[in-house]
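I had to read the description of the data format several times before I understood it. The format is easy to grasp once an entry is in front of the reader. For illustration, here is how one protein appears when written out as sequence plus structure tokens:
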Amino acid sequence: MVKIMEQTAIECARGLVRIGDFGGAYNIVEGEIQRIGEVNSREVWRLRFIRAQVLEARGQVEEALNYLESLPLSEATDLESIAALKMHRASYAGFLGRCETSHRLFDEAEIIACDACLFELLGEIHLSEAFIFFRQKDYVSSDSLFRSALSLSEKIGGWYLRGHGRWGVGKNLMI
């Protein structure tokens, strides 16, 4: 008999986003936020980020950014939530062509993640900013950040950073 590890609702929703099941992820997030309430906790912040990711994936980038900007940063009490909030806002600002704001927020998120030794989040920050640089046709900066994410993936394991890091390096090599 094969044991299946139990996943939290957040892990399940994140996994669904990563494989493109946005409806399933959204249903989990909304159900969990209703169950928990809009309290200030790391769990609720993660649910909020997934909610924004679903909006973005559905083409509602401006709405995703507005949603995150409507949440007071002072409510985020842990460094992981603060860095992730800055990363998500940076990504959406970059998608909307607000690149100066985007890179400033990425820099702030990176500093927080480095100082707090949040290496998986740091890898996600690098992937996100690499994609913004790619969209700006700054392939040197993009390649460097994709390679940084790939290097981090070797230290922390998992398929997500490794797969996306390799994709990004390959995409830049094709240009």
Remarks:
- The chain has a mean pLDDT of 91.
